[in-house]
Structure formats: C-alpha cells, structure tokens
Design a protein that fits this description.
This is DUF3114 domain-containing protein. By secondary structure, this protein is mainly α. The chain folds into 2 domains: about 40-125; about 130-270 and about 290-360 and about 415-430, no CATH class. The chain is about 50% helix and about 5% strand. The protein has helices at about 5-25, 30-35, 40-50, 60-80, 80-90, 100-115, 120-130, 135-150, 160-165, 180-190, 200-225, 230-250, 325-330, 345-350, 355, 360-365, 390, 410-430; strands spanning about 265, 275-280, 285-290, 295-300, 305-310. The strands form 2 sheets. It has a 3-stranded antiparallel sheet with strand order 1-4-5. The protein has a two-stranded antiparallel ribbon with strand order 2-3. A hairpin with a 3-residue loop joins β4 and β5. α3 runs parallel beside α5 (about 80-90) and α8 crosses α11. The longest helix has 25 residues, at about 200-225. It starts with 5 loop residues before the first helix and ends with a helix.
C-alpha cells in the first residue's frame, strides 16, 4: 500500500487497465464476482497450507500450522475480525520453498501487523473498517493506541516523543490515504460532542492528534531535510514533489485518482498566532510573544487532515517535538484534524475537546497566573462604537495590538505565505 514513483504508478495503472479489458472480454459477470469474493479464515488458511504440501514435509507443515494458529489467535485477541485476518494477514503470505524461509515470512508478517500504519496493518485495517459500528470503531482505536504505547497523559518530553514515534511505520507519509480512513474512524467512534466528554479513550484520542503531527513533521525531516537545512527547506522540497504530482495528474487526465493529495496554504492561521497582552504602568499594552520573538506562523494542510505549522524562523511548530520543544511550538503548534473541513464537525472534533483533554504541560505553558496567550479575534472591521474594544485585538487591524510596523497579523502572515508559494514553485520548476 506504499506509494511508489508517480510516473511508474501511472504506467502500472494504465497497463493494469489495459490488461483488465483484454481479460474481461472472455469472462462472465459471475467469474468476475468470484474473483472479488473473500475467502473465509479457515479457507484462507487451508489454501495457504495446501500450496506448501508438496514443498514441505508433514512435520514441517505441522510446525508452520502451529505458528499460524498462534499468530491468528493473537490477532483475534487484539480484536481483528476473522475476515480481516484472512485477507490482511494470511492473504499477504506468499509461497516459500523451505521451513526456514516460510517461518521467517510468517513471523515477519505478524510482527509487521504490530506496527501502526505498516502495509500489513493497513491491509487488516481496510477490511476491518468496511462496515464498523461505533463500538467496534472505539475498540480498533484502543488497539491502535496500545500499539503506539500511548500514555494516559502526554508529558511533552522529547524522550517520550521519540519512543512513541518509533512505533509508527517508517514509511507512513503525511499524504498517505490511510490518514483519511483514520479520521473517519474517529468520526464514527465519537459522534456529536462525545469527544469532548470525560472519557479516558477520548482523552487519549484527542492528545494523539499532537503525536500524529509530530510524526508527520519528523517524516518530512527524515525524508527531505539535508544536512544544514531548515524544516522550511525540507517542507518546500516535499511540497514541490506534491506539485509535480499535480502536473502528472493533469498530463494523464486522472481527475479523481486517489493517489493525489492536494496541499493548501490558504487555511486560516489565526489560531496559531497567539500572543499575550500585558498592561504597562502607563496603561499602554505590551505584547508578549512565545520565546519573546514576534514570529509569524503559517498553516499548510493536506486534505485538511494533515497540518503543518511553519514559523517564520523556518522551524516546525509542534506541541510535541523529538528534537526539542520551544514555547512557540507548544502554544501555536500543529495538530492533526479529525474533521474533513473547517465546519461544525471541525469545531466538535478538533476545537472543543481542547478544553477538557489538552495535556497538562501545554495548559501550563499557555496560561499562567500573570498572563494567557490568546489568538487575535476574527473581527473584519468595525464601524460600531460597541465593537471598538474588540477591534483593537483583531487579526485584520493594522493598528491593533497584534500589528507590527503598521501591518496586521493577517498581512504579515500573507507575506510569509507568498514567500512559501514562490519557494515551492521554484523548487518544483527545477
């Protein structure tokens, strides 16, 4: 399920489609449907063993069967359905000529199922989530978090974050279509306002958003950042690659091909540019910025779910960071979105739960006895005297408390967005 080179994928797709049309010309509808049917767990296991009867001794075959049964039992105990195990586990096993090779494959495939986001995990996940109830969705989330080793409460320490990130598959990319499926499962598991309620699983699931964003930022660093480069330079290289995919998409005319995940720089960054306002002795307002630096943070999203927050210093802003926390990251950082777009569901799943479920360490950084970091408000303009006080704190006010050198917070962010767009275009054109 991992994505390969874009041109190669499209060529394979074209050859597959051509082959299908040639093959299908001599097939009946019932023949085609029979190919699509899933074997039962018992049938899949029998089919696998039958393939090896002429290759292995009876003794070796019995040993493999014991190993299979042990793996299947463990997967069943974890909550995977027989249907998921038949397709997602047994269906991934291929033929081997000797006991050593086959035993190794059976064991490695099982171990891969224990890694969140691996190919085997995703195969199991795809079948398991075809038809799932809210109760079943919660159980699958519980299993997923147990594989990660998700604690009841995140500490924010880089050491803990590094340990947790080791349980993600190394090739689980930010634009992998698995993330959309994961978000849909959360939507199923937590209808209405239930993610904001006092609930141990809800608490973990909310905080998991921060860990996902840390994993996605670190993936970009590890795959695109060269020695001496900033996070910004790595992200530009990654997004330039996404732009090139768009060109190939247009070239081949595949408008609805799911391989492509669009990125967007136009989602509002307002909530990720918090600062604290303090009253001086003369009554004037003094602004306190995270890390004592008036940074600008911009938001980049992929299919809305994946979110990067990039500061004007060129560093990712994240509540969790295996390379070390900074105040801007904790206060203004990224968090994976469980909603599909900026709507009511976004407020229900991604905004409201913050109050009840945010990690304690983040609450301590964002609000003290002396000040609280707050985002500028969304007031677009003010002609009414009653709105005058609010207008001072507006995102769009060139003379408000969030403005610097006659530029509103919105204008400063727009400048950074345009700079990033230019950098991505130049990199994509190289």
């Amino acid at each position: 399920m991992k994505k390969k080179g874009i041109v190669g994928s499209l060529l394979v797709l074209g050859l597959a489609l051509a082959g299908y049309f040639v093959w299908s010309s001599g097939q009946t509808t019932s023949d085609f449907l029979s190919v699509e049917q899933h074997l039962s767990l018992a049938e899949q296991k029998k089919e696998f063993l039958d393939r090896h009867r002429s290759l292995l001794s009876q003794e070796d075959l019995a040993a493999i069967e014991v190993l299979l049964e042990r793996s299947i039992a463990d997967l069943q105990q974890a909550g995977w359905s027989d249907r998921a195990i038949a397709t997602g586990y047994l269906g991934q096993l291929t033929q081997e000529k000797d006991l050593i090779g086959l035993s190794k494959q059976v064991e490695e495939t099982y171990q891969a199922s224990q890694i969140f986001g691996s190919e085997v995990f995703q195969e199991l996940w795809t079948v398991q989530t075809e038809k799932v109830s809210a109760k079943e969705a919660r159980k699958l989330l519980e299993h997923s978090l147990s594989l990660i080793g998700m604690p009841d409460e995140l500490s924010g320490s880089p050491e803990e974050t590094r340990a947790l990130l080791q349980r993600f598959d190394k090739e689980l990319a930010p634009d992998d279509y698995f993330w959309g499926s994961f978000a849909r499962l959360v939507q199923k598991a937590f209808p209405k306002d239930s993610l904001s309620k006092a609930d141990s699983l809800a608490h973990k699931v909310h905080q998991f958003r921060y860990l996902i964003s840390a994993q996605q930022a670190q993936w970009v660093r590890e795959h695109y950042r060269r020695d001496g480069q900033t996070d910004r330079e790595a992200l530009v290289a990654y997004l330039a690659g996404q732009s090139k995919k768009e060109v190939e998409k247009d070239t081949f005319g595949l408008e609805e091909f799911d391989y492509f995940v669009d990125y967007d720089l136009e989602e509002s960054s307002r909530l990720h540019n918090k600062a604290a306002s303090l009253r001086g002795q003369s009554g004037s307002v003094v602004m306190l910025y995270p890390d004592f630096e008036p940074l600008v943070n911009i938001k980049i999203v992929l299919s809305f779910h994946t979110e990067f927050i990039l500061s004007s210093t060129g560093r990712f802003a994240n509540e969790l960071d295996p390379e070390g926390l900074d105040e801007n990251g904790v206060v203004n950082g990224a968090s994976f979105n469980y909603a599909n777009k900026n709507d009511t569901l976004h407020r229900t799943l991604d905004i409201k739960p913050v109050k009840n479920h945010d990690p304690s360490y983040r609450k301590e950084w964002t609000k003290t006895d002396f000040f609280a970091y707050q985002a500028p408000n969304n007031l677009s303009f003010s002609f009414q005297p009653s709105k005058k006080e609010s207008w001072v704190s507006s995102y769009f006010n060139k003379e408000g408390i969030y403005s610097i050198n006659g530029k509103s917070s919105s204008e400063r962010i727009r400048e950074e967005i345009e700079k990033l767009k230019t950098a991505i275009k130049e990199a994509a054109d190289d």
